[in-house]
Alpha/beta hydrolase (Nitrosococcus wardiae), 391 residues
Amino acid sequence: MSYPEKVDKKYLWLCIGLILLLNGCAPQRSYEAALILADTAAREAPSRWKSTTPTPSQAVVTYTVAGRTHRGTLYLPTAAPPQAGIVLVPGIVPLGKDDPRLVAFANTLARARFAVLTPALKEFKHLQVRPRHPRVIADALAYLAKRPDLVPPDHLGIGAFSFSVGLAVIASLEEDIRTKVQFIFGVGGYYDLETAIRFFTTGYLLEDEHYLEPSQYGKLVFAATSLKYLTNPTDHAVLREMIHIKIRNPDADITFLASRLGPQGKAVYSLLNNTDPAQVSTLIQALPQGLQRLIENLSLSNQNLTLLQAQIILVHGKDDPLIPYTESITLANALSPKQTQLYIIEQALSHVDFKFRSFFTPAFWSRELPDLWRMYRAIYLLLEKRAPTDP
């Protein structure tokens, strides 16, 4: 997961001025949304949002839900009580909740009077996904829901990036938590895991000619996750060696190791090196059964989404090289139109990397300014989930 590159301040402020001229409702919220958009672009660098809002508090917390103990980091506004709570979940990155980019965004939201909890998902350190991860996210929500001093009633939600959008949706379906989650803010998520796997392994969507270079990072995550499901120690050792080589050098040749793989290891290797999108379904069926079940259980296409009560804000870049933007479109179509707001970003978002390159060019007026407007609208809707302040 990555976040915005630093961009020219004069450029951003011109864009923000144009945005404010376009939006005539809720002036204070509009202004805050514009400042947050600029602060998101600034990341750890100075911004007007940072200079005009108090620095949030930050503390590591330990909490227990139904006998399950977790750790996380809690970010709180310091000048006024929180107006909403949000569990913020990164994509599958080695530093997890402590990734500097996630920390910067958590502070941005805490300055906006959100109580922000980033739960520890320890397997992310090893680029691994586990069946228990949705429950970990649900427990973080349950913890905040039991803290009325932090979260006003009916103002609790999730912010998630990349693969974690799916985990967040599944967490929100948990029976003990589904009535407590009012919103999900998701960037670059998936709907059907087989489609996502097809895309990051072959670069293709089966139903059209849309193609992008296959994602080496997606392959690494899949390979690392598969290790738990390999029963042959040699398969485990060889695949782990392949992963380490690819982490050091994504272009390295690892074919010389393939001959040492047994049937399970070869099944994983064959899927990740396949270039024919029509073969993906067959190759998935050859995977170890536990890995097949994980894919099935974490696919939103297999969930009863009619039980989902949260309002959904989805943002997805059209040039996403890891999860195709069509996945967010399909997810939105699987939900009630009144429940979902979808923003497809034409140019300024590659997976979850927010950036602007041009200024006073045709691309600025035709693509970048409209993209800024879409991203601003998504932030504006997120701010709308806060409880109103007392008059």
The mean pLDDT is 88. The domain at 9-191+303-383 is CATH 3.40.50.1820 (Rossmann fold).
